[in-house]
Amino acid sequence: MLKLLGKASSINVRKVLWTSHELGLTLEREDWGSGFRSTQEPEFLALNPNGLVPVLIDGARVLWESNTICRYLAGREGRRDLLPQEPGARAAVEMWMDWQATDLNGAWRYVFMSRVRGHADYQDAASLAAAEREWNRLMGLLDAHLAQHGPYAAGAAFTLADVVLGLSLNRWLMTPFERPEYAGLAAYQQRLLQRPGYVQHGANGLP
Ligand SMILES: N[C@@H](CCC(=O)N[C@@H](CS)C(=O)NCC(=O)O)C(=O)O
């Protein structure tokens, strides 16, 4: 049995839940992370020294980093539609997954901590405005890409890139701040909403 450690409200845990849904896999999930069991407990740190969720346990194998876990599960199940084997096609998927985990993920932090978490350390008006501009700029880049090369991130077919970008799109839509009207992203959201995995684990009311 595959075991997933991490609270279901975490965007990174939800990537794994949605991927598992696409793969038809059942996971045994335990609540870890803020509000639940602390990831600073020695038992958890022995599995992931970063003290972050998600962690996947598959027998003797222990994995952390949400995008890596999604790739592992797709590969484990032989789902080349979600993660192609041909190097060029695979790179097109991984490029957007890496962009999500690095550039995009870093860009929303200030806005999210300020406007959703209400954290006292993230209340500087100028920093907030700059972060909002940057987050919107990056989402505009995705919007333009989808318009030119869509309908999905890696082209014609739904892949793992759409799982991680779909959750990011949901976060952007659910965070209360001023967003430009991006027609491509609105259409992408509607397309993703046709997938039960996104409805259940992505667009489920959580930012
Ligand atoms: N790069 C990591 C980031 C994981 C991460 O930031 N997890 C957050 C929740 S979204 C966490 O564990 N926070 C600490 C906590 O909730 O105790 C990944 O993609 O898996």
UniProtKB/TrEMBL annotation:
EC number(s) stated in the UniProt entry for this protein: 2.5.1.18
Keywords of this entry: Transferase
**One Pfam match, by short name?**
GST_N_2
Give an example GO molecular function: glutathione transferase activity
Q: Does the keyword Transferase apply?
A: yes
Which InterPro entries is this protein grouped with? Glutathione-S-Trfase_C-like, Glutathione-S-Trfase_C_sf, Glutathione_S-Trfase, Glutathione_S-Trfase_N, GST_C, Thioredoxin-like_sf
| SUPFAM superfamilies associated with the record | GST C-terminal domain-like, Thioredoxin-like
Tell me the ranges covered by the GST N-terminal domain, including all copies.
1-81
Question: In which organism is this protein found?
Answer: Serratia ureilytica
Q: Which residues form the GST C-terminal domain?
A: 86-207
Q: What is this protein called?
A: Glutathione S-transferase
The highest taxon in the source lineage is Bacteria
